[in-house]
Amino acid sequence: MTPPTSLNEKPSAQASSGTQSTPPKNRSNSNPLEARKVGYKEARNIMEVELRGHWVGPMPYNEFMEKFMSTDDPAPVGVVDENYFATIPTEPENKMYLPFKWLNGYRKADTEKISDDKPTNFEKLDLYIEVKTNVFPFSDPKPNCSPEERQKHQFENRGDLAEDCRGQIGLVMAEICARQYRTHSFMVFLNHKEVRFLYNDRSAIVVTEAIDYRTESKKLAEFFWRYSRMSDAQRGMDTSVRPSTPEEIGKAETALAPYLPRGETPRPYITLSVPTADGAERLVVGRDCMMEPDSVTGRATRAFPVYDLKTGKIEFLKDTWRVDLPGMDKESDILKELNEKQVRNVPVFVDGGDVLGSRQTTVSHEFENASWRAGRLAVLVPRAHNRFLENFIGKRLSKFTNARQFLIIVMHAIEAHHDALYLCGFLHRDISDNNIMITNGGRGILGDWDMAKRVGIPGQKPPDPIPGARHTYRTGTWYFMSGLLLMNPYKLHTLQDDLESFFHVILYYSLQYLPHNKQLDEVQYVITDIFKQCRYQTFTGLYIGGTGKQSMLLFPTSVGALTLTDNEPLTEWILSAQAALKSFYLYVCTVSDSHPGAGNSPAIFPPDAHKLADHTYFLHLCATALAVPDAAWPDNRNLEMLVPHLPIKTTKRVPVLKRTADGEPASDDLPAPKKGRATGSELDVAHKPPYIVLQILVRLGFNPLISNS
What we know:
- Pfam families: Pkinase_fungal.
- Residues 254-598 form the Protein kinase domain.
- The protein is built from 20 helices and 19 strands.
- It is α+β, with helices and mostly antiparallel strands.
- Among the domains are: 33-235 and 677-699, no CATH class; 478-650, no CATH class.
- The chain is globular and about 85 Å long.
């Protein structure tokens, strides 16, 4: 049987005699839990903040067409008059959407509703068209302004309406790229006066100059003419992924059944091509994801079990947009080297590498220094699509059976971290609960090496610096990053930062899952003011935090002594590790007089601080605790975490704007609060063009029903 060629087949338009009304459904592709937690106004606000400095514009129209929408045939001349769109209503959005009543599932745009009579199916949405009657999210500089004036110009308009609009656009872009396998996507923005065309990949969003479509109607018509003639790959579909054939599903579904989520509407089976060293095609079949990307830019990691059609085995697939900079190794290459050097307690690499093909590397960052670009910009990170297989499918750290096993699992992760540094010269740089997994036999595995950096083996000559390789951004998961990194975004990431992250993992999980002497409100305080604590500095464009962690380490009485119930070994581990970290903080920091009781405490305590010179002390603490007989360890634990994970996005990437045009270092890997995804309930008709646009689409042969809602 010939396999289907696309995950995004274009549906035909279907007329309907009226609207349909069905109860809201909790569909995996339309009503994500995260958005219901924070609400759509909050989600749009968070997305707008995250994307500050990632809107690259205003790109000239002709350059946009040439770069992103090139076709073999020249655009037709005279299809429409220049004032063809002059009669589009300038009244509220519902008037612009009125002609769509005949479409199946039509209703007027209402971006505040959470329930929906028929949520948009983002898995089939091809082109998103946003209509706002009187909102201007972007502002072009004057045509003949100087480069200095362009740099200072505010391209991203301020104000609630403009910011809300950009947040909504970002949410939809994120949802499309999360529900589909895409390398990039396009979007059209219309208000009563102008149209802009947008192109986004995993680095940034390119925005055209404003075009008055009432007097330059040919440009709007040309966009749709070109788009209707572009291939799936040109439109942004990842052609290395396709729907599985019945034969492939028959081979895979029984083997995959134990790994599929329960209680959710299943997503379709898909077949993915995994790159191989010899160039041969290696196909795997999967269904659904353990995690999905919820940002427009960034790594967009997908990771889930797949059935290998070559071997008939279940493997674990990881699909990510890695940082493509000198000095940053591919995770697939890192795993191979860790395996070759026999590093303990890490996944075993099977196959894979960078995906080859059209637009499998980002291009939006290439316009960072374009002469037409205006406004402040974040550090735009080039990215490449990487996909590989490993042989380990583990359980989450939260599935530990008791406190003793929990410490064993973390100790195994520390051993992996030690071996990677001392055998291969790699520093992990993202120690978190999500990256410490459990084998079926109860061992710990340290995974997710995509942010690891080759720093050299301690005691040996460090690697030669690579020209142009410096990229000043923090890495890590916000809850577990060291206080020093959170306070100073430009700090060099060191071994001590990762050791502190191991401490935060043990402390956080002890508070959440093990019996102790703290009241619920005390734990809530610790989670909010120590692990979650962060603030956004508008004047620098930076997220900073860490003061809560610093206070906890330097002044333990600020949160009170923690005692785990009937668990002296792990209590002693926490107190001893905390004391070592306190000494290290005193070694590297000057204690502020603003802290009560600090007085004139000396800033340097070298002997105790040296406990964190390597892994020895933390491993010694583990061995000492585990030497205590099993009978002294309690078996009880909380089945669920004590305080639900608060909605802050523990991501590796968030925008940081360049402060000036003078080349100061800037960072883009800071945290952002957890946001919800846009759904059909919010954006049911946002992609549906107004009536006159519909006419031109039909005339040009372009399918007007862009989404099968």
